Structure formats: structure tokens, C-alpha cells
Input
Amino acid sequence: MANWVIRSRTIAHHLNKKMGSLGFLNLSFWNSTSNSFHSSSSTMPLGDNHGRPYAIFGDSATHFAVRRFKSTEAARESDTKYFNQDAGDQALDFPGGKVEFTSEMNFISESADKRVPCYRVLDDNGELIVSNNFVQVRKEVAIKMYSDMVTLQMMDNVFYEAQRQGRISFYLTTLGEEAINIGSAAALSADDLVLPQYREPGALLWRGFTLQEFANQCLGNKEDKGKARQMPIHYASKKHNYFAVSSPIATQLPQAVGAAYSLKMEGENACVATYIGDGGTSEGDFHAAMNFAAVLEAPIIFICRNNGWAISTPIEEQFRSDGIVVRGRAYGIRSIRVDGSDALAVLSAIRTAREMAISEQRPILVEALAYRVGHHSTSDDSTKYRSVNEIEHWKTARNPVNRFRKWIERNGWWSDKDETEHRSSVKKQLLQAIQIAEKTEKPSIEGLFSDVYDHLPSNLQEQEEQLRETIRRHPKDYPSDVPV
Amino acid sequence: MLGIIRQKVGAGGASLLRTRSAVSALRSYSSAGKEMTVRDALNSALDEEMSADPKVFLMGEEVGEYQGAYKISKGLLEKYGPERVLDTPITEAGFTGIGVGAAYHGLRPVVEFMTFNFSMQAIDHIINSAAKSNYMSAGQISVPIVFRGPNGAAAGVGAQHSHCYASWYASCPGLKVLTPYSSEDARGLLKAAIRDPDPVVFLENELLYGESFPVSAEVLDSSFCLPIGKAKIEREGKDVTITAFSKMVGYALKAAEILAKEGISAEVINLRTIRPLDRSTINASVRKTNRLITVEEGFPQHGVGAEICTSVVEESFGYLDAPVERITGADVPMPYAANLERLAVPQVEDIVRAAKRACYRSVPMAAAA
Output
């Protein structure tokens, strides 16, 4: 026991030394969280706990922000972390810490005996399974969750059809992953930064982006806050703390770690949530981001939507590990696997992950298993590489929206009448949004030149003037319905 | 193997420099006669900007404990602590992405590449995550980040360590690209880059780090800043304009000395910024001298000289009395052997000969073929 005391004094001393030069370091906020979630360390759902610092400094009074140490100090810490002083004889010193040695040659198997189980709260019929640690949801929140899942589903269907009719150039759906979208969004607070991949418009919907705003972006008109610069579904909203969707895969992951580092430096009571698909985890950026998040002790939640397909590449061809969850440990990151079709499980896991990420200043990995019901995008026909029966099965029997509906109906919070009213209202809003968006003017040519830099540079200023002059001189060569 | 090369790059450069006594960057306001190495100029600029703005932080391989692969960040870890001077794991793609993400949220990272050759592993983040973000997000996401490090040829480091990336980055709208030459340039431009709200690529030169230049009291002041997009006329002349950037400015000045003895008065322009290029200074000079030579270390095709030539043809064609000539590195990956390396980069004699051709003092290259 004496070990822990000595070590905590060392850390306190180390931190005190730093306080002088780092005026903004603020320890006190770690102690309280404003969430409604019950947070007592004794019920924290940590698996095989090797006496990690969290358990040791369990009480709020001694919640330290464990700063990055120099390599030798980290090694000393992991010594005491993993085994006691008695093992002294059986251990070898190496950079990185002490390691016990063994005279038995054993290769760690490429896979565990059993796959990591996935956490679920509702069964396929929307009945509560007796489970521990799930987050209770108030009626208003549950209704908002369900109605947003329905809205998301309907928006996807209507906009997909719009693309097919040639009214928008591109679209991709979130079908089958509504619970991941809305469940995760509901677990976060408005101050948490979201760095999406591209299949998470639900998080933006939850935060208040309107159907009209979605339509404006997809149709590229002058009302779009993004000035119609991006192709459809590449939403961005600073107001909603939702960073821009960006086409190159997985680039958002190291960016998210950087943003989390920024939150950490400012001592904010918020975290970053970033999303990635199963395919995206093959990118180099995934490795760098996970590794860095752990080393920098960044308050970030990596949410992996493992939906089984990366365009036409099934997961057997994507990786040979047991999904993504097992990779967490490889980087020293706490991880969990959840049933992505179960909105309550997703909510619970991510709410808990958020708690840990902020109070302990550490990354968390959440793998949500699901199925991509829709095609990859409007440029894809997935029946070419998978069976229609498989798609139908997931669309019906494993539908996350229906499952949640059964639960809220059983609670007496929703009825068939509510369903019909909601669906017809949303349908009307969607059709109206598209019509209005189509009739809205396109952006003016000023939008061609601005925002390349913070200030409009002289060469672009000149070019804009030249363009306007040319249009003035040859008005009949310029489309009359496009504003100047 | 790469580890050995990286170390070698750090140690090998010093031996080739002219040895002058390196004066440490003291904040003394005595009159001119003060000299400062480019290394100290960069170090002091970083120090002052980090001191002035707590959002500025430095990130890169070996920048902390090792004091910087080229000692540019010497003393900064000790002064500012590990939160503001981050030693990164070896992943350019990773730490560049992280820097961009931090900049998205409002910090002001300075990302160091051990050499810009390694920035190739991160170029997607520089272009697609940094350069284009302000435009694509309609001004919602700005990226006040600086990417810095040595660029171009060093000495005896071969093809993968000698590439010049000035024209690569300068072709991309959304970026600003700076190329300091002297210590005054290094201080003023790095400060300007860190204060700038747009992403800036700051191309240094390894062989210049140890060179000393005179610095005035104004340059040493902590508020000193040079404007981005303004070239400097290092030497006035009336017969031929020579544009250059980074190390080649020194070569161009030497060539101008030699030319002066032969009665040719050369005007040497230190570009300082490649994007946005100071077209007005270049064109004004060409309208005065009517002849132009562009000098760069990088490859010829689509190089900086090609852009300058086009700018002059577009704006000052009638003023040209001779074809524009570009002096560039040879169109081959940089060889290692010392004799071949010397042939693959411009030398002072090449600039002198080109200036003479432009002044019709010798036969044009095409006629000699």
C-alpha cells in the first residue's frame, strides 16, 4: 500500500512543478460532471482491471489529470501498475518497464477462444433484458430519440429518391444505422465536438439542423451555410459543433485527436466524438489517431460503425481481427462492443464512455455492430455483390427503428396515432423542404472567390472584377437564372 | 536505415557551412553590427510567438527532448513544457492530421517536418484537410497552422532527401508558401506565418541554418514581422533581373558580384514568398531591366521559374528584350556522388552564364545547339 502513496506524491510534485509554467492547468473541474448519469467509481464497468490509476484514485477528490510523463517515469508507473514488488526476481528491465520472463515458449493466439460479446439492453422484440449499468431515459428523450430515428429514415428515403429523379447529384443513406446515429448523439452534450465520417447525419439532426438546411446543402443553393461549396451530404455546422464531412477516408480521426488535445489544453468539460466505418479502420490515419490519442491522453470517443461492408468489400476481406474492438487494447485504449441496432445500448455505452473520457482524460473505443441496409451510395448497386435476402432480413427482422418503437409503445409513450401523425408530418416537411430548396436561388459569383484565404487576395479580387465586367458586357452569354 | 540517415542529416550539414562565430540571440538594442544565425533567428521567433500567445504550440519528431533535429527548437521544451512542445511518434500523416484538428478547434500549431520530403506522407492532410477547409466550409472552419522544416537539397543525402517542394505547395489555393533566406527573413516571416489565420507552408533550408546574417535592432524586436507576399530587392541593378529564393539568393548575389566586374548590373530579387507571388515587384523590375533570369534548386517542369516567366509574359511582354531563362536543378532524382550532385544543382557560374546570355554577351543556348 505504501507504494501508491509514494507514487501519488511524486505525481503531485511533478504536477506542481508544471503549474508554474502552465497557468491554465485547472484540476478542480475534473471533480464534478454535470451529467445526470450516476457516476460512482465502484460501479464503473471496467473489465479485468489491473489496478489501473482510475481504480486507485477512485474518489473525486484525488482525480488527477494524469499528464504525459517522460519515458522513464511512465515505465516506473507501469511497473507498479502490473505487478507487485515480490516479482522482482522474475522480471527483466527493459525500456518501457519491467517484464516477467517465462521459459515456456508460447505464441499468443491470433484470435481469442470466443469473440468479444456485444452489449445490448433491448432484445429483438424491444423488451428490456435484465442488464446492469444501462442509462435510464426520460420519456421526452425517448420520444425525441424515436421520432428523430424515424425522421432520419424518412429523410434518407426521400432524398435518395430525389437523387434518382435527378434533383440532386448524389446521396447516401444511413439505413440500418439509425440507432447508432441517434443513440450516440443523444449520449453526448451540445458542447462535445463531433467529427463525422459521412454516414452520421443523425447526429446533426439531433442537434437541431433542420430538414430545410439538409435540403439546402444537398441542392447547393444560396441559403446553405456552407455556401454550396461541397457536394451533397458533406454537411458542416460550426454552430452545432459538427465538423465538416470530408471525403478522404479516416482523415477525421487524427484531426479529432488534435481537437481533443485542444479541449484538454483549455480544460473544457467536453469531449470529442469521432465516427469511422469498418473499412476506414484500415487507413493509416486510424493507427496514428488511436496511438496518439492514447499517448496524449486525449478526451475522445472513437465510434466505429462496423456495418459489415465497405462498398463491396465485406469485413472478411477488410481485416482478420475480431472486429475493431480488440484493437483498442493494442493501443492501450479502453474499448467496448455494442449492438448497434439497439439505441439504448448505444446510448448507455457512449454516455459512459463520455464520462470516462472527460473525467479520466483518456480515449475510449466503441465498436457498434450493425448492418448497412442501403447501398453504399447512389453510385452503388449492392445487389451486385450481396444477396437481396440478406438485405431484406436486416431491413425487417433486425430493424433498429422498429425495435425501439416496440419499447416506447410498451412504456405507453407512443401509439399508432402518434406514428401516423409523425410520419405524415415529416413527409410533408421533407417534400416541402426539397421544393423550396429547388426554387431557392443558387449562390452568387462572389461565393466563387471568397474564403480561399482569411482575406480576399488581390489576384482573386481582380479576377472577380474581370468576371463581373465580362458578364456586364456579354449578358446574353450568361444564364439569366443564376445570380451575379 | 532511415534512422541512420535521419541522424546523418542532422550532423552532416554543419561541416559544409562557412564557419562564423554564432552569436546567441540576445535581446540587445545596440546598433548594427549584430549578427545572428538563421537557426537562432527561427528559435527566437518561435520562442517569442509562443510566449506571446498561449495557443501556439510546436509539434514534430525530436522537437522536444532532442532539442530539434536541427536544434531549431532548442530550449523550448524546458521553457514551455511538454504540453506545448510535443515529441510525436513517427507518423507524419498522424501528427499533421492532429495538428490540423487542433487548429480546427482554435489552437495555433506549428508542425515541424524533419524535412519536407517526409511531408509527402502527410500531404493529404496539408492539402485536403488544411488548405481547402476554409473554402469548403464557407469560412466556418479556419486552419491557422504552420508547417515548417528544411526543404530542398542538403549535401550528400540523395534523392529522397533533396526534393524541393516549393512548386508543389505553391500550386494549391488556400495555402501560403514562404521561403526565407536570411536571418531577418527567418524571423520576420516565421512570426508572420504563426500570426496568419491561413495555413502556411514555411520552407527553410538546412544548409542556411548555420549561416550568420547581420540583424538590426528593429529585426530583433519581438514585434518584428515581415509582410507575406512581398519580395525584397536584395541588390539593385539595371541590366538584368535575377529572381531567387532560399539558398539560391546567396548564389544570385555572388553571381551579381561577378557580373558587376564585367560591367553587367544585375538586380537580385529575394522572392521571400512563393504563394502569393509578388508579381508586381517582379514585373516592375523586368520593366526596368528588360531581361529576366529565374533561379531555383527544384526540378524544372512546372517549377517556380515557369510561373514567374508566365507572369512576366502576361504582364510585361512588350518590355522583354531577351527570352526569359530559368536556372533550375537537373531533371533527374538527386544523385548521391558529390561530383554528380554538384552537376545536378545550379551553381554560381550557371547564373553568371545565363545573365550574360540574356544580355547578349554570349551566344544563346538554342543557337549553339
In short: The longest helix of chain A spans residues 139-164. Chain A has a mean pLDDT of 85. Chain A touches chain B through 57 residues (CB under 8 Å).
